[in-house]
Amino acid sequence: MAAIQDKVRPGDVISSDLLNRIIGLLNEHDTLLAGSGPSGNLITGFDPASEQNVGKNLIVLGDFDFPIGSNNLSIDGIPIAPASFLLGSSASQLVFNIPISIVVPPSGSKSVVVRVVNSKGTGERNFLLKPQIAAPPDPTVSAITDHGTNTTPLRSGQNARIVGRNFASPATSNRVRLIFNVGQTQVAFPANAGESLVIDPVASVILPASQDSTLVVMLPPIGASLIPIVGQSAPGFVEITAPGANNPVTQGVQVRRMS
Q1: All domains of the chain, ordered by start, with CATH?
Q2: 77-103: per-residue pLDDT in tens?
Q3: Half-sphere exposure of 233 (CA within 13 A, CB side)
Q4: Which of 31, 79, 106, 234 shows the greatest Cβ crowding within 10 Å of its Cβ?
């Protein structure tokens, strides 16, 4: 993180942004003084690779500490609290939402520094931010249960019921995926991020944003490569993408192998 150049005069109000940058700088110094290893570029890349809009999710790829809370990550000098790392973060990738406090000129762009400090050293890379774009609210999820029993865990090869808000209409325009082994050798159903599990257009109900909507989706069969024994369960997560929204929503689930 670059040195803080802000000047505060007597009587000035200290902004939360300045305080956050001070805290981030102190955390980085604390990590280095604690005896981190030799500095090196811990960041190997990004997803998307070269640019992203403010307010959207960004994945930083590299060599990180696990548990992930040991990593000090900042973008444009703004610390990203470990509690803000999104589902899918691991020792090889950190997922977060780009703060909307970063100002990018309309129709312009801004080159920023993404920086990580952890026990393995430090790393930073430049990344290009585009302005925040107007979009429908991101979808949210309040519950995911087995459609037949209204309980958990979910059952492979059976329908699941997803309750949440800001789903798109018609129901089949949303994309739902089931993903296992996040941050490792990831296995997703469907494998293509642009495709979706089968959504039941009759059982699903889409209501205005102030009310809960329901998506009913058919889960895929699960084989022994993911869950060795019939009747056992494994953790994964469901990802729901509503067309036009800035970001998908993800929710952790347990899935039982049924055959």
Answers
A1: 16-130 (2.60.40.10), 140-256 (2.60.40.10)
A2: 999 999 999 988 889 999 999 999 999
A3: 12
A4: 79
